């Protein structure tokens, strides 16, 4: 094909490459090359200070034989199950409320978006005080004594609440954009036909917003699989409940940076990448059944 | 008017660019050195010794930078890989073997040869020297300070329960008795025993005549009967009413519990005392320090022990300013510099004979604590447990011991697993020793 291009077209093509070069170079240097290195590192033992010794699939065997690793994988999936459906549902509700004709809409939009602006570390600190078993306001209000962040049975739910709370605003803003693209005429026609609000939601809103919802869902799932900072801040390593919340990224951090075993750490990362890939493929297959692209 | 913000942005950008450039190359002809530490409470004392040096050497400028403990090691390791370590930095016993085995630290053994042969041996204790030594017995830093662990107790709670204050004759039995009495009389907790090694079960293990690592540091000692007994005693304290359980400690640090008068006793490193005294001045006069209680029937020894650690000042083996830095470090190890550092009350300098200014600092600030305790404890203190694989096994051991606390496994299984964790990590490290040397 290339040799059939005229000189002018070729020049234009070169200019095109030049224009995208900064982005491509950045991507290669900052994302792709480190990713290749991570794959290599996962087959090495880290001896210290950047000295690596190739040891084949030993890291993978090591990691797969540890119950702690499978527990972390389950914890990660469990976290996604807890946060993603509820989070998406609430975000959609919030987006619809913000899309309605109410006074002070701008103010409410800001309020819902605020958690997104706060540093995750600060968010976790505040929530930890709310959840504190001895002095926390939540136990005071409910009049119960639950160790929200130290009881292994409830700790994940507590973390999920914080995660949902911090993400609603962002997801809602994205969904809001989707909602605003739906033409008013559909609703007007439905009103004339006498359709109830619930029918309108399921037959107009949901199908029309589904492409946006799909994108938000993919993004939310990916970031939920990679959850680390929130859990790390909420549950320290000496917390007796740590095994119940230790996610894959938490385990990766501990391996790579606390224990200095970057080989096993990288193996965990590669596993996580595969997990995300699998989930995303399943979603793309599944979307054909519910996402509606013909507007 | 519309163009104004753009002009302002341009000016700002240029200024920023210029200032970054200025940061790169010192234009004043002086040697600029960086000095990295992790304890903000010691910033003043470190700046003071730097000032003392630069006063004599006006052509050197030293900038003290503080990073938090956790970030410190991540950053330092990354810097070591790319040979961009700070000119001077603190080195900790946890890590010194790891760094020195890989040849990252400059050898300081001959630093004082022109001043006095055996300088280190003459002016520093064996433990201080041990804490600055690599596996090969060479010095990879100039000893900075020394510390040990003391028991902090609440005098009012002891009075309220009618129990005598802890003294050097106190045994483990006295510790549990007093805790029970205080709990019965006041409803407050007694001794705080939580999942902690340095300020916790390690001290008890050495009191009982046990050991965490063998003398040659190649094997762990968790399954030694004396060690096992001490750890069991320590862990089982949480089953008593007077000691909160691990869930409590996950949310409340023992120090905070103590200074909010929720408990009567806990173990603390002497390096924290000034910080605690200043921060909780409402507790002034209500608390004091005591020696650690001794084991009543140790397998060997007299039942006394406390962990003693010490930091040192180190520099990179391939540093760009090595000669200039060596001169600074040489000064940091002198009596003069160590006396200055002591006088801020944050840490006891390692140089023998410079301890008094540390105690005087408390006097000056008006805090009356029984410092003879610290002085006496140095006589039977034990060097902090370490080997080159320690950064690898330490987090795993913490997780494993947690299982004994939350009832996931019984203590004997946990001890056996801990033994295996440490032995395996150490063996792996030794197996690789030839690879990088």
From the 3D structure, determine the CATH topology of the largest domain in chain A: MetI-like fold
Instruction: Please give the number of β-strands of chain B.
Output: 12
Termini Cα gap of chain A: 36 Å
Number of strands of chain A: 2
**How would a crystallographer describe the biggest sheet of chain A?**
2 strands, antiparallel
The poorly predicted ranges of chain B are none
Shape of chain B: globular
Quote the beta fraction of chain B: 5-15%
Q: Any idea of the CATH topology of the largest domain in chain B?
A: D-Maltodextrin-Binding Protein, domain 2
Instruction: Give average pLDDT of chain B, whole number.
Output: 90
Terminal Cα separation of chain B, in Å? Answer: 67 Å
How are helices and strands ordered from N to C of chain A? HEEHHHHHHHHHHHH
Overall geometry of chain A comes to flat
Integer count of domains of chain A: 2
Structure annotation, total helices of chain A: 13
Query: In CATH's first tier, which class of the largest domain in chain B applies?
Result: Alpha Beta
Rg of chain B, nearest Å: 24 Å
Q: What is the CATH superfamily classification of the largest domain in chain B?
A: Periplasmic binding protein-like II
- The whole-angstrom Rg of chain A is 24 Å
Overall CATH architecture of the largest domain in chain B:
3-Layer(aba) Sandwich
Helices and strands in order:
The complex is a heterodimer of chains A (295) and B (437).
Chain A: H1 7-41, E1 44-48, E2 51-54, H2 58-64, H3 67-99, H4 105-117, H5 120-131, H6 137-142, H7 155-180, H8 184-193, H9 197-225, H10 229-234, H11 242-245, H12 248-258, H13 262-290
Antiparallel strand pairs in A: 1-2
Chain B: H1 4-24, E1 31-37, H2 43-56, E2 60-66, H3 69-81, E3 88-91, H4 93-101, H5 119-123, H6 126-131, E4 142-143, E5 145-154, H7 155-161, H8 172-186, E6 189-191, H9 197-207, H10 225-236, H11 246-251, H12 254-259, E7 263-269, H13 273-279, E8 287-290, E9 307-309, E10 312-314, H14 322-332, H15 335-342, E11 348-349, H16 356-365, H17 372-377, E12 382-383, H18 390-405, H19 411-436
């Amino acid at each position: 094909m290339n040799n059939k291009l005229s000189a002018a077209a070729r020049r234009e093509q070169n200019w095109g490459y030049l224009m995208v070069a900064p982005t491509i170079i950045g991507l290669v240097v900052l994302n792709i090359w480190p990713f290749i290195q991570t794959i290599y590192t996962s087959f090495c033992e880290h001896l210290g200070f950047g000295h690596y010794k190739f040891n084949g699939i030993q890291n993978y065997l090591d990691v797969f034989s540890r119950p702690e690793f499978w527990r972390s994988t389950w914890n990660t999936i469990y976290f996604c199950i807890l946060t993603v459906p509820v989070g998406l549902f609430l975000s959609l509700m919030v987006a619809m409320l913000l899309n309605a004709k109410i006074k002070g809409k701008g103010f409410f939009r800001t309020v819902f978006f605020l958690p997104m602006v706060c540093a995750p570390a600060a968010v976790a600190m505040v929530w930890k005080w709310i959840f504190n078993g001895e002095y926390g306001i939540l136990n005071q209000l409910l009049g119960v004594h639950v160790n929200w962040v130290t009881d292994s049975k409830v700790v994940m739910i507590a973390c999920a609440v914080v995660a949902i709370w911090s993400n609603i605003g962002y997801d809602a803003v994205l969904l809001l954009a989707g909602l605003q693209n739906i033409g008013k005429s559909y609703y007007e026609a439905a009103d004339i036909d006498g359709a109830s609000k619930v029918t309108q939601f399921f037959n107009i809103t949901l199908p029309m917003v589904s492409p946006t919802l799909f994108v938000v869902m993919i993004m939310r799932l990916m970031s939920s699989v990679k959850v680390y900072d929130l859990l790390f801040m909420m549950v320290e390593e000496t917390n007796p409940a740590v095994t119940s919340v230790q996610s894959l990224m938490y385990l990766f951090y501990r391996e790579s940076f606390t224990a200095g075993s970057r080989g096993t750490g990288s193996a965990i990362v590669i596993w996580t990448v595969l997990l995300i890939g699998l989930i995303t493929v399943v979603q793309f297959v599944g979307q054909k059944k519910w996402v509606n692209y013909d507007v | 008017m519309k163009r104004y913000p753009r002009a302002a942005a341009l000016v700002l950008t240029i200024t920023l660019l210029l200032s970054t450039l200025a940061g790169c190359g010192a234009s004043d002809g002086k040697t600029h050195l960086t000095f990295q530490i992790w304890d903000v409470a010691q910033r003043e004392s470190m700046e003071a010794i730097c000032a003392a040096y630069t006063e004599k050497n006006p052509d050197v400028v030293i900038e003290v930078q503080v990073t938090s403990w956790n970030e410190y090691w991540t950053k330092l390791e990354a810097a070591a890989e790319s040979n961009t370590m700070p000119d001077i930095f603190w080195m900790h016993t946890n890590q010194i073997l790891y760094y020195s085995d890989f040849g990252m630290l400059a050898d300081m053994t001959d630093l004082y040869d022109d001043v006095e042969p055996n300088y280190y041996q003459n002016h520093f204790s064996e433990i201080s020297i041990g804490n600055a030594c690599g596996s090969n017995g060479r010095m990879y830093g100039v000893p900075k300070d020394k510390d040990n662990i003391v028991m902090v107790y609440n005098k009012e709670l002891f009075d309220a329960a009618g129990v005598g204050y802890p003294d050097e004759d106190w045994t483990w039995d006295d510790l549990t008795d007093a805790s029970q009495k205080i709990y019965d009389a006041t409803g407050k907790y007694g001794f705080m025993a939580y999942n902690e090694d340095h300020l916790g079960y390690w001290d008890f293990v050495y009191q009982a005549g046990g050991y965490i690592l063998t003398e040659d540091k190649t094997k762990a000692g968790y399954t030694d009967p004396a060690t096992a007994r001490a750890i069991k005693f320590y862990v089982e304290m949480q089953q008593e009413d007077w000691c909160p359980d691990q869930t409590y400690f996950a949310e409340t640090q023992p120090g905070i519990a103590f200074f909010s008068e929720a408990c009567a006793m806990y173990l603390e490193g002497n390096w924290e005392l000034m910080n605690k005294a200043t921060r909780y001045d409402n507790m002034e006069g209500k608390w004091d320090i005591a020696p650690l209680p001794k084991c009543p029937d140790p397998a060997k020894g007299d039942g006394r022990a406390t962990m003693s650690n010490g930091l040192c000042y180190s520099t990179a083996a391939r540093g760009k300013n090595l000669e200039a830095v060596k001169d600074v470090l040489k000064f940091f190890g002198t009596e003069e510099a160590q006396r200055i550092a002591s006088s801020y009350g944050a840490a006891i300098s390692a140089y023998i004979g410079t301890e008094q200014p540390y105690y005087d600092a408390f006097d000056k600030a008006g805090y009356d604590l029984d410092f003879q305790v610290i002085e006496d404890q140095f006589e039977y203190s034990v060097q902090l447990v370490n080997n080159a694989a320690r950064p690898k096994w330490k987090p795993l051991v913490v997780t494993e011991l947690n299982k004994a606390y939350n009832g996931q496994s019984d203590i004997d299984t946990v001890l056996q697993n801990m033994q295996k964790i440490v032995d395996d990590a150490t063996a792996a490290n030794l197996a690789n020793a030839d690879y990088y040397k």
